[in-house]
Protein: DNA polymerase III subunit delta'
Amino acid sequence: MIVAKNRTAHAYIFDGEKGTHKKEVATMFTQLLLCEQLHNEQPCGTCRNCVRVASGNHPNVLTVQPDGTFIKIEQMRALLGELKKKGMEGGRKIYILQHADRLNVGAANTLLKFLEEPDGLVTAILITEQIQSILPTIRSRCQHIKFQKLPRHILMTQLQQAGITQSMAATVSMVTNEVETAITLSEDEQFAHARKTVLKLVEAVQKNVHEALLIVHEDWLPSFKEKSDMEQALDLLLFAYRDIVAYKANPDAALTYPDASALWRDLALHSTYARLSNQMQAILQARSYLQRNMNRALMMEQLMLNLQEG
Structure:
């Protein structure tokens, strides 16, 4: 145990996708470092320090979030100023950088200098979903801890145990790896409508482009007015075509929409891998157009034509 053997590093990177509980582990690790009565090398959770860490009120624990898009140099200077203040309690000081990949150049250089010359008993925890965006010189000075996603089949089992249908569990487990978020999505009428609209659109595309365009204007565009909703809908559409490819390769493959397997079987029989690949590329292209704020009606009309042509 690193704490018991006094092998605590001065800096860690907690790296993993969204939903891998990095923040929760950072809190527990902070409690571990500050706990007044460790039991079996675990934080007790009830001492004064553990309670203050859990509530975000420990004076020796400082957290920095991006100010807008980036963590700025002024924030890092303020953080280092706080760490040097005499008014803080004795013992270890811990600072946590949320979204550490968003350090701007000045902030990253300021952090690097502090990592090279740490002042006193200080531990840094850098939390990120994009470790490749952190300067290699910063990464090399931190202990890297990789967080793995919860295996999809385990997440689906947990969702079904919570009363969610197998088909909905299969879909939401592709959208998020967080159990709580997945349960919320599965109970959301808007998400259920999005799922239904996507399946309806895929079926229409295979019939004729006019029917697909009708669904776009009557169902799709009115339902997905916000950019985030449109992004999610395009992701769900991409998962549908991924299902067709998966079914074509292996009828027993794990699907995002298992309740649509009969439709996937029919489409797989009448589609080539090349055509399906082109259709998936068309959806990805539409998603990039969305980021560039292209007119959404025009974007979706073009997508329908591209999906029809394959």
Summary: The chain is about 55% helix and 10% strand. The chain has a mean pLDDT of 92. The radius of gyration is 24 Å.
